[in-house]
Backbone:
């Protein structure tokens, strides 16, 4: 059978026609009552896209490209947001040479960022097929112009347009799922992949809790579609609490983050779910430890969409074979429904939750060692504004619960609401703003069987009293294109906190600047102040320290970096940073006070500074990889006692390579290496007094190598199946923690993944 | 703003609570346990004084003890709730006072710790915040510097009189005097660090280990703990009589006050002689070549070393002192009092307990 390469086509789909973020009008706006709306013209590709069908590939595939189009119509940046290899790199490679008629507003061109769908259709033999050739034809064999004839695809058009920057916000590091799938040791999980980003310091290998530029895990805020969640990972070394198939992107703001994000003084991890789609599609995976699936479809003629996803672990059954007394269980679910009331108005309901349990049976009695769960029910209304811009009104109900001492549960029942508006004023200025409020009702079970005099229990109850906390915030920032080469994003955020009868206010100025020195050289600076109420050691559901009498935690964050667009699709970023943490409740980093010290809520002064280097070529490329290196120092101070943070790691290196072996085989390896933690705490976690801040004793350095091999079969039009073998810490290396060799903590994974 | 909060927050949370689930995380599903109430009282001797076998009348003026961290342990034991705190008791007092309350099921072994109090220690009758502060005052002595073991927070591995770097607070303080024939000898001794007490009593002699418990659901147990400072003068395990003569004889400078340092300069009496009655006791020998201050880095290690070259308090060899408590290794009278006898001032159900001692760096 002679195979004929057919040109890929791009298609305008309902997917993404309506966005949560600010979008341009995709349809003519109704005439406004007062002022005329600006006329926005979307970018239009000059000519037909000429994307060859990849040599050696099979099956159909859809690749979503994220294109940044300058005012002159040139494509200045290409990222494959979704799609598999070799389709993604093929599409991205060709798109760099495309020219567009630039987007205009009232005739004035502006930089735009669009999503561009490239749909590959496997060449199929004509009805009177000739015998197949011995070799495949050259990719140029099918010109683009033939595509409309051969396929039933709509004409090419952008499927999503985001007005503004044409580039990501300054100070953000983003991970798209398509790329993360290829990252060894991440198990296809975008959240786990955060640890490769510069500035991120692991606590223990494999454990998804991190220090970010010296900020402890309790000061890192996690958001999913703008909804605050306590964490994004299941217990221990478990996977993320959201099916990876519905995660479009994960952003890490290491400092100086947008004013939208507040009440966390360390860093922000913000994940966005995929835009609703009305075509039936889904993904699933089956692994040794768990199984997960996601399916989505449309209804009401495409006006509505419904998505259902989840994951269930059967580790309990497996563990019972090797360790009968231990039970480990985790599961999560996601459900989303959207409905377009009008072309401009959409309502949506997004519910998700996660459950984790680790218990031990001793003498026939089960005790829970670790248990937590949380659930969110988010009702949202989205409206596209006349003349561009958007509005979102969201209301969230939450329920968080964690097992604490004496086998009792602590819980948080929460209510939150938020209003966010984004409005382009002109071609160069977009104003964003919002208000939000959060109420948390904290309560813990009474102790059933415990000494009522126990001061430890009383101290716990005093630290986590039954109460209702409230927080109100208002924020605004301006995305201001001062010059075609200079973008400035000044912002301001104000928060009012109230807890257990005390109140505190905070004003957080933020500033981010991006300067395009040349087409390939960019400067990125970020400054910011952030405040946070006292936080617990780790972000656990329902666990928040009450009372503000000792004040808020404050961080002063600053970074300056250079970003270079290198040849061969490689990007390099070098960033210097310094953060100061005032009044920080970093029990993990500072150690608990010795038994003889009457501190219940120790506050320390923290300082962190360092240099981050990040060089990467997309892992979805034929040969992709990255080097992420952080050189840093993080200290804490109690009074005159200055000492290194318990997880101050001087060097943290992550590097990976992924290679397309052909015939849909792909393999990757990753090296993680970091300096041992200083021995500033005793074996029981109490502080070592007078530890040397400059040259502390340290545990030995640790490294591990993760491996991943994937074989993919394209089973037909947009249906695929992959067999994935992956192993975290394939070298079975033990990590030394406070002088004790632990592990090896290795996670093997064998599984099937598939989608349609 | 405050008014708005008061009005809106409960209403909104009520709405949220009504809509939110109660969660899947189970509550406490364990069956009802047994409860063990530990009470403390001071011995009659601590209140009324005691006459020793060698004719001395001892009067205890004040005692302070910090005891707690009561816990149940054992492979066949389900410890529901331990009581990790200490309580500071003053002696003498009358009547029983609560020490702590623990819960468990199964075959459990109860243990206690005699250790310097933490800042949140509770105060028993007659003990004051000033007493607590005094006990928490860090310091060193010959023994705390030598037998320092692993220390740390509540629940950490601690046993034996130990402390961080030998600096620690006081777990037990005993003040009193003894009189005989117009001679008065005073004593005011402080014992620092941590001692773990477990397996109290003995199956062979006392009808069972009183801290080995078979706990059933709903059982309500009460275990009395007695503070008996007179045990400092029981120079032989199991001896009925007490002895003060070796202490009086240890008053080297004859100033009427017997210090621990003076006791450290005296070789421990042999078992046979220590149990002797009046007139049978020899003069205490001086432990020549022995560093009374314990600065030799090894003399008071409690690990079985013996003083050499000195006369023993009763005329027997110092090696015989090992008869007092297996493994105590008391070589001087100071060692014997500090390492062996001080922990024995805490009696559980009238029985003495095994002292679990662990030195820094191991064993």
Residues:
């Amino acid at each position: 059978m002679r195979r004929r390469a057919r040109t890929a086509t791009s298609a305008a789909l309902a997917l993404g026609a309506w966005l949560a973020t600010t979008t341009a009008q995709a349809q003519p706006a109704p005439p406004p009552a007062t002022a005329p709306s600006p006329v926005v013209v979307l970018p239009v590709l000059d000519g037909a896209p000429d994307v060859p069908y990849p040599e050696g590939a099979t099956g159909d595939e859809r690749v979503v490209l994220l294109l940044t189009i300058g005012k002159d119509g040139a494509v200045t940046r290409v990222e494959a947001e979704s799609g598999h290899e070799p389709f993604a790199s093929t599409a991205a490679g060709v798109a760099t040479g495309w020219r567009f008629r630039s987007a205009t507003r009232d005739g004035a061109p502006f930089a735009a960022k669009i999503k561009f769908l490239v749909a590959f259709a496997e060449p199929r033999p004509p009805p009177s097929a000739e015998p197949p050739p011995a070799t495949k034809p050259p990719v140029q064999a099918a010109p683009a112009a033939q595509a409309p004839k051969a396929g039933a695809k709509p004409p090419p058009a952008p499927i999503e347009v985001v007005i503004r920057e044409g580039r990501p916000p300054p100070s953000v590091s983003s991970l798209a799922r398509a790329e993360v799938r290829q990252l060894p040791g991440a198990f296809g999980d975008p959240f786990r992949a955060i640890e490769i980003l510069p500035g991120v310091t692991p606590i223990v290998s494999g454990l998804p809790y991190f220090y970010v530029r010296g900020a402890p895990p309790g000061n890192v805020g996690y958001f999913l579609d703008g909804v605050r969640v306590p964490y994004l990972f299941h217990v221990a070394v478990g996977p993320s609490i959201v099916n990876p198939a519905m995660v479009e992107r994960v952003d890490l703001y290491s400092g100086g983050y947008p004013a939208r994000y507040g009440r966390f003084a360390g860093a922000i991890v913000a994940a966005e779910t995929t835009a609703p789609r009305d075509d039936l599609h889904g993904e699933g995976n089956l692994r040794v430890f768990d199984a997960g699936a996601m399916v989505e479809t449309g209804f009401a003629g495409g006006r509505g969409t419904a998505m259902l996803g989840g994951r269930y672990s059967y580790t309990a059954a497996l563990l019972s074979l090797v360790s009968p007394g231990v039970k480990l269980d985790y599961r999560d679910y996601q459900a989303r429904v959207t409905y377009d009331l009008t072309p401009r108005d959409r309502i949506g309901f997004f519910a998700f939750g996660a459950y984790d349990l680790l218990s031990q049976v001793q003498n026939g009695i089960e005790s829970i060692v670790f248990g937590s769960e949380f659930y969110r029910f988010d009702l949202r209304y989205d409206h596209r504004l006349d003349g561009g811009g958007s509005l979102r009104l969201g209301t969230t109900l939450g329920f968080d619960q964690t097992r604490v001492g004496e086998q009792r549960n602590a819980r948080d029942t929460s209510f939150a609401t938020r209003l966010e508006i984004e409005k382009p004023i002109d071609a160069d200025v977009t104003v964003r703003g919002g208000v939000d409020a959060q109420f948390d009702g904290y309560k813990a079970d009474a102790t059933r069987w415990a000494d009522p005099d126990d001061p430890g229990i009383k101290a716990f109850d005093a630290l986590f009293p039954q109460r209702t906390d409230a927080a109100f915030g208002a924020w605004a920032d301006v995305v201001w294109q001062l010059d075609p080469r200079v973008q400035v994003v000044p912002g301001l955020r104000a928060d009012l906190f109230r807890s257990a009868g005390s109140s505190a206010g905070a004003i957080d100025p933020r500033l981010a600047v991006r300067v395009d020195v040349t087409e390939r050289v960019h400067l990125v600076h970020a400054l910011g102040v952030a405040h946070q109420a006292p936080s617990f050691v780790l972000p656990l559901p329902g666990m928040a320290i009450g009372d503000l009498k000792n004040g808020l935690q404050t961080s002063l964050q600053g970074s300056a970096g250079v970003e270079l667009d290198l040849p061969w699709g490689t990007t390099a970023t070098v960033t210097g940073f310094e953060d100061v943490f005032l009044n920080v409740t970093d029990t993990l980093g500072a150690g608990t006070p010795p038994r003889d010290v009457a501190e219940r809520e120790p506050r320390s002064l923290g300082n962190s500074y360092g240099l981050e280097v990040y060089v990467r070529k997309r892992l979805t490329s034929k040969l992709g990889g990255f080097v992420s290196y952080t050189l840093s120092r993080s200290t804490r101070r109690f009074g005159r006692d200055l000492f290194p943070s318990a997880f101050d790691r001087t060097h943290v290196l992550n590097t990976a390579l992924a290679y397309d072996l052909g015939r849909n085989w792909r393999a990757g390896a990753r090296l993680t290496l970091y300096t041992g933690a200083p021995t500033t705490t005793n074996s029981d976690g109490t502080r070592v007094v007078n530890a040397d801040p400059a040259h502390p004793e340290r545990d030995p350095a640790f490294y591990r190598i993760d491996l991943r091999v994937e074989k993919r079969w394209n089973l037909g039009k947009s249906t695929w199946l992959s067999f994935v073998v992956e192993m975290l810490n394939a070298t079975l290396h033990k990590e030394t923690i406070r002088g004790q060799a632990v592990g090896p903590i290795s996670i093997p994974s064998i599984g099937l993944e598939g989608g349609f | 703003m405050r008014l708005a909060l008061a009005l809106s927050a409960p209403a909104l949370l009520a709405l949220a609570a009504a809509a939110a689930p109660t969660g899947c995380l189970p509550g406490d599903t364990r069956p009802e346990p047994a409860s063990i109430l530990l009470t403390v009282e001071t011995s009659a001797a601590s209140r009324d004084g005691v006459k020793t076998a060698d004719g001395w009348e001892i009067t205890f003026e004040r005692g302070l003890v910090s005891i707690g961290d009561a816990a149940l342990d054992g492979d066949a034991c389900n410890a529901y709730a331990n009581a990790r705190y200490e309580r500071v008791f003053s002696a003498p007092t009358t009547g029983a006072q609560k020490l702590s309350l623990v819960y468990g099921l199964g075959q459990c072994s109860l243990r206690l710790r005699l250790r310097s109090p933490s800042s949140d220690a509770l105060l028993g009758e007659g003990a004051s915040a000033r007493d607590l502060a005094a006990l928490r005052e860090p310091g060193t002595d010959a023994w705390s510097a030598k037998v320092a073991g692993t220390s740390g927070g509540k629940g950490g591995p601690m046993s034996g009189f130990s402390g961080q770097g030998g600096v620690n607070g006081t777990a037990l303080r005993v003040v009193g005097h003894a009189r005989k024939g117009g001679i008065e000898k005073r004593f005011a001794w402080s014992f620092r660090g941590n001692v773990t007490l477990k397996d109290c009593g003995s199956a062979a002699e006392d009808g069972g280990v009183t801290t080995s418990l078979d706990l059933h659901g709903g059982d309500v147990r009460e275990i009395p703990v007695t503070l008996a400072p007179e045990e400092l003068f029981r120079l032989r395990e199991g001896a009925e009589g007490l002895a003060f003569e070796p202490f009086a004889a240890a008053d080297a400078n004859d100033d009427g006050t017997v210090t621990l340092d003076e006791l450290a300069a005296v070789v421990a009496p042999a078992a046979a002689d220590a149990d002797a009655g009046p007139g049978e006791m020899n003069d205490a020998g001086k432990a020549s070549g022995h560093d009374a201050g314990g600065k030799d880095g090894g003399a008071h290690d409690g690990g079985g070393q013996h003083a050499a070259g000195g006369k023993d308090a009763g005329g027997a060899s110092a090696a015989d002192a090992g008869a007092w408590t297996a493994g105590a290794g008391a070589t001087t009278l100071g060692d014997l009092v500090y390492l062996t006898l001080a922990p024995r001032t805490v009696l559980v159900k009238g029985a003495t307990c095994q002292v679990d001692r662990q030195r820094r760096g191991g064993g």
